[in-house]
Amino acid sequence: MAPAMAPARGARRRGRLRRLGVVAAGVALALLLALAASWRLTPGVQDAQARVRGAERAHGAPPLPSLPRDDRVARARVATEDSRFWTSPGVDPQSVVRAGLATVTGSPDVGGATLEQQLAKNLWFGGRRDRAAQLQEAVLALKLDRTWSKDEVLRMYLAQVYFGHGFYGLAQASHGYFGRTPAQLSWAQASMLAGLVQAPSSYDPLVHLQAGKQRQRHVLDRLVSTGVLTRAQAAAAFAAPLHLA
Asked: What is the pTM of this model?
């Protein structure tokens, strides 16, 4: 009996996989059509730089000068949040399909937003998180990738993102937490800052140091996984003093 049941189970499993593949393909096609239809309905992104400067002024944050690719906070954010940043077109196709499947099935959306999508959300949508806004964010992310260089997108993202404790933008956060410029940050400090963006209040090292250290460990692990740091360098960074201001 058991040998006869095994092929049946295998056939059912293959059938489920085929149906899932058909659904995924349909979702991907529907999303592509939706993105194409939304292209003309979303604004251009040529004013992104002006919007960033407006955000800096609104929060009293100093301007962030052009950011070298080897900036430690930038590398830590890319490793932790969007490891395909340098090669993606502004959206992660895998995450887009996951988000579409979540919409069809009604399950939680586990798709990760790229840095371009997060920048679009911050500059154009604020705290709005409905499905229509997410679709427009994806279109704006594609436009950002076509209009601005990756270095400039990364600089704009870090110039306006919230790091907690009332600090907006990398320049203000670097000085507020550590009394240093971004270029002077150690890997210990840079990995702590990079981890704050996900939940700035919860990981604030001036208030919740232990939680901040746990998040810092995750960031350092991602830097190891993406080949930026060795395991020994990450361990040294985790053990190093933060010298909080």
From this structure: 0.81
Q: Per residue in 146-197, pLDDT tens?
A: 999 999 999 999 999 999 999 999 999 999 999 999 999 999 999 999 999 9
- Own/partner contacts of 202-207, CB < 8 Å, gap of 24 or more, are 203/164, 204/164, 204/165, 205/177, 205/242, 205/244, 206/165, 206/177, 206/244, 207/165
Q: Are 203 and 194 in contact, with CB atoms under 8 Å apart?
A: no
- Which domains are seen in the chain, by residue range? 1-71+87-160 (no CATH), 162-245 (1.10.3810.10)
What is the DSSP code string of the chain? -HHHHHHHHHHHHHHHHHHHHHHHHHHHHHHHHHHHHHGGGSPPSTTHHHHHHHHHHHTTPPPPPP--TT-HHHHHHHHHH-TTTTTSSSS-HHHHHHHHHHHHHT----PPPPHHHHHHIIIIITT--SHHHHHHHHHHHHHHHHHS-HHHHHHHHHHH-B-STT-BSHHHHHHHHHSS-GGG--HHHHHHHHHHTTSHHHH-TTT-HHHHHHHHHHHHHHHHHTTSS-HHHHHHHHHS-----
164 residue type, one letter: G
The token pair that represents 123 in the structure block: 């500059």
